[in-house]
Amino acid sequence: MSEVKFYKYRIPNFEKKRLPGKLLVLEGTDGVGRSTQIALLREWLESEGYGVSATGLKRGKLAGKAIQMAMEGHTLGDATMNLSYATDFADRLERDIIPSLRAGFIVLLDRYIYSIIARAQVRGADPTWIRNVLGFAIIPDATYYLQADLAHLIPRVLNARGFSYWESGMDFLKGRDYYDSYNEYQARLIAQFDAMAEEFDFVRIDANKDIREVFKALKNEILELIKDMKPLKKAKRKKEDEKKPEPKGEKEAEPEPAKAQAKKPDAKVKKETEQEPAKAQEKKTEVKEKKETVKQPAKAQAKKPEVKEAKSKETVQQPSRETASTS
User: Fold this and answer.
1) Which of 88, 167, 176, 209 is the most buried (most CB within 10 A)?
2) Total domain count for the chain?
3) 278: in domain
């Protein structure tokens, strides 16, 4: 359970003093590998049973799309852009970050208010003003600063996507090509992050190393931070196991399929018992039919002598008729 603290002032109508989740931030300049590490950390934490939520700049429903459209058209001034980023952050804080922390999730943030501050100060914004604008931000449980130098950043960016307008600072570094602008702008951003590392207590991670080595370093840091947290899935399984009733005896513990098998022979015997009278009746009918078949020849034999006797009578009577006629 983490204590909720704000940098300058609490947001309205927020009464909670502690939240069960953890707020973890990955910071660093463009091309340092934050998104890659967020994906790896999320996969690992979810495999361990933790609930994980991830978000980043320009992903809010209220102002995220408007900022993206403004960047495509280069239509907003510096102060308006900073206030738009603050609006986007406030929306995500209310809709995504705090609800996830309240639910006991580990929230992974790809950039936080520190990137907004660094970009604003590089473009000449007043440091006190921009910090007051973003003073409603919750202080994270940990901020991991992925620290890399330009010698390692430039090849990564060229191999991945190339230099972009905003990542090269072309909106205020006029009259330079992309390569020179990128070097100048990123050098200024790195200087701002290095200064803020002391102010905001960043945990420095050497991002010049291989992706897997960076992930291992982050994993070790996070394991120490979340050692008191219980994975949500494991806790849920434990509750379900506790609710299951204990078996009272061997007979009651007998599985249902075995009981069903035990009942089947009884049903079979019953069925056979019911079928026995029917079979006996069928046998009686067959015997009766057989007897009748046997009696028929006897009746036929009895009729034959009668016919023979009748014929003999007729034979005896014929001579008498003939004798009468001759006389």
Assistant:
1) 88
2) 2
3) no
Tell me: do 225 and 326 sit in the same domain. Answer: no
| pLDDT for the residue numbered 27 | 97
d(CA 11, CA 14): 6
Residue 244: what pLDDT?
Answer: 57
Number of C-alpha atoms within 13 angstroms, CB side, residue 297?
4
Residues 110 and 24 in one domain: yes
Looking at the domain assignment, is residue 266 inside a domain? no
CA distances from 243 to 236, 237, 238, 239, 246 (A): 11, 10, 9, 6, 9
What is the rounded CA–CA span in Å between residue 199 and residue 100?
27
Secondary structure (3-state) at 48: coil
Greatest Cα pair distance, the chain, in angstroms, is: 172
pLDDT at 198: 93
| pLDDT in the model for residue 53 | 96
Name all contacts of 49-52 with Cβ < 8 Å and 24+ positions apart: 49/231, 49/232, 49/233, 49/234, 50/105, 50/106, 50/226, 50/229, 50/231, 50/232, 51/100, 51/103, 51/104, 51/105, 51/106, 51/232, 52/105, 52/106, 52/107, 52/108
What single DSSP character describes residue 139?
Answer: P
Instruction: Report the C-alpha gap between 8 and 152 in whole angstroms.
Output: 36
**34, 24 contact by CB (below 8 A):** no
**pLDDT tens digits, residue range 232-259?**
766 555 555 555 555 554 444 444 544 4
Distance CA(247)–CA(31), nearest Å, equals 59
Q: What is the pLDDT of residue 160?
A: 85
State which residues of the chain have pLDDT below 70.
1, 233-327
